[in-house]
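Open question from group meeting: does this chain pack into something compact, or does most of it stay loose? Before anyone orders reagents, we agreed to write out a predicted structure and look at it together. Recording both the input and the output here so the notebook holds the full record.
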Amino acid sequence: MAPSVSTGAATPSRRKGAAAGVEEAELLRGRNAELEREVAALRAELGAARRRAETAEEAEERLCVQLGEAEAEAVEIARAYQGRVEELDRELAAARAARSS
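C-alpha cells returned:
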C-alpha cells in the first residue's frame, strides 16, 4: 500500500463538520442574544425593585416622624388630662373638707 498524501481538499466529512460548527455557532449566537435580552429584562426589574424599595424606605421614614409627633402629642394630652384630674381631686377634697366643717 502506498502512503496517502493529503492534498488539503475538504472531504465530505470535513464539510459536514464545518457546517455543523457553523450551525452550532449560530445556535450559540442566538442563545447568547436570548440570554442578553433576559439579563436586560432582569436589570430593568431590579431597577424597578430598587426604586420601590427606596420609595418604601422614604415612606417608612415619614411614618416614623409622624408617629413620633403623634406620640409627643399623646404625652402632652395625657399630662394635661392628669393635671385636670389632680385639679378636680383637690377641688373635691376641698369641698368635702368644707362640708365636714
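Observations to bring back to the group:
The helical segments are 12-100.
The mean pLDDT is 89.
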